[in-house]
Structures are given as structure tokens and as C-alpha cells.
Design goal:
Layout lengths: L2 H14 L6 H11 L5 H10 L30 E9 L5 E9 L4 E8 L4 H15 L4 E4 L3 H4 L1 H9 L3 E4 L9 H15 L7 H17 L11 H5 L1
Parallel strand pairs: 1-4, 4-5
Antiparallel strand pairs: 1-2, 2-3
Helix pairs in contact: 1-2, 1-3, 2-3, 7-8
Length: 229
């Protein structure tokens, strides 16, 4: 997010509170605190950062259509994101948020943390977008972080398609599932993680090796970076 929009985002967050408020009320409250901010700027940041009220649907859940993976033909055609779990040496549970580009199987990001609320997931994705560009679609399972109002509104505001897989069909996210297995076998299983920082350091070095050194059979024995070049 541009620096010029951060102040507006903070102004919006300061007036939201705990009750549901529509866009017009938010704009009015923000301008009441700072009359110099234009309504169009506030509206743009409000929609882009996922603050919009999410439409309430019937409690009856609609069946998700089958969504098999289609081979990507260009960068950023479709990303896949998924969580993994592990435990530090002191017994505290941690999670990882993994992001890959289906084109070339490139690992774009792995972040270790104790928890991943939807807003933190979005912060990580925005940093990744700044580095690699915006994807056309993001493939996920049906976890609460991805079905949340905040995440769905962020996707809508950024015009990113949600490629939702069927519940109980991890094969529809098979590329990142295989990636997760490799990451676990190389990093999580053989190493004792004494801290998040130590685990992140091991992970960052592994990502560099995975993208630039390790050949992939599915890529004609090229590395992800070589394939995407």
C-alpha cells in the first residue's frame, strides 16, 4: 500500500469501532476528524483494504463447484496459499503461511508466526504483491482466514479472483500440497526450531536454494527462476 494511503487507513480504523458501519458513515466520521481528506480518497482506501461490509448470505451453504488445477501459462496467473503447523523446542505451537506461484512452482513467501488473523494474511500478501506483482487469482482451501469478510473484501477491492477448492478435496490444491511436503521434509522435520527467528532464518535460506539451485522434474529439470526467466 502506498505511504500516502496509510494515514487514511489508520484514520478509518480509528473510527470503525466494534459496531457495523457503512461506507457513508465511515467517510463522514473520518472527515469529521480531518476535513482535509477527500471523500473519494477515503472511499478508495476503504474498499481496497477490505473494510467494506460483507454481504450477508443465507445460512444455507451453497455447494462449491469442482475446481481442478489448470496449468498456468504465465507468471501471476494463479497463486496458491496454505498454512502448515509445527512446534518450537519449548512446545509452543507455530504456523507457517506459504505462498507459491503455480507458474514455475516458485516459492514467493513463507512466513512463520504464532497466529495468522485475516489482516496479517493480507499484510503478507500485499508485501508479496509489491515484490512480484498482483496475481489474477489466489487458490485457497475453506479455512476461516480465507472465508472471512475481511479477506473476501480485500480480494474484491483488489480485483483478485478467489479460486476456492471443494471442502475435503486437497487434491484441488495439489501443487502447494506437494510443495508443503517438500518444505516439511527439508526444514520442519529434521530441524529443532528454538525460536521463530531461527526457523525463519532456516526457511529464508531454503527458499533461496529452492528457487535458484534445486532442479524440478516437472520443469524439465530447471529451477523455478530459470523456468520463469
Amino acid at each position: 500500500m502506498p505511504d500516502k494511503d496509510l494515514a487514511i487507513q489508520q484514520a478509518i480504523e480509528s473510527v470503525i469501532g466494534k459496531s457495523r458501519k457503512g461506507r457513508s458513515k465511515i467517510i463522514h466520521l473520518v472527515q469529521k476528524n480531518d476535513p482535509t481528506l477527500g471523500a473519494s480518497r477515503i472511499r478508495r482506501v476503504y474498499q481496497r483494504t477490505g473494510f467494506s461490509l460483507y454481504k450477508r448470505y443465507s445460512k444455507r451453504k451453497l455447494k462449491v463447484k469442482s475446481n481442478p488445477i489448470v496449468e498456468a501459462t504465465m507468471k501471476n496467473q494463479e497463486w496458491a496459499i496454505d498454512f502448515m503447523s509445527d512446534t518450537l523446542a519449548n512446545g509452543r505451537k507455530i504456523r507457517t503461511l506459504n505462498v507459491i506461484d503455480h507458474y514455475g512452482r516458485k516459492c514467493l513467501s513463507i512466513v512463520l508466526s504464532y497466529n495468522f488473523p485475516a489482516r496479517k494474511v493480507i499484510e503478507i500478501l500485499e508485501r508479496t504483491i509489491e515484490k512480484y506483482g498482483k496475481p489474477i487469482a489466489i487458490r485457497t482451501d475453506n479455512g476461516p482466514e480465507f472465508t472471512s469478510r475481511y479477506f473476501q473484501n480485500w480480494l474484491f477491492g483488489n480485483q483478485i479472483q478467489w479460486s476456492q477448492i471443494e471442502k475435503g478435496k486437497p487434491s484441488q490444491n495439489g501443487i502447494i500440497e506437494r510443495f508443503n511436503r517438500t518444505y516439511r521434509e527439508d526444514i520442519l522435520d529434521p530441524n529443532i526450531l528454538y525460536s521463530l527467528e531461527y526457523g525463519q532464518s532456516l526457511t529464508d535460506d531454503w527458499i533461496e536454494e529452492y528457487n535458484t539451485v534445486r532442479p524440478h522434474e516437472t520443469l524439465n529439470y530447471k529451477t523455478p527462476n530459470e523456468y520463469a526467466a
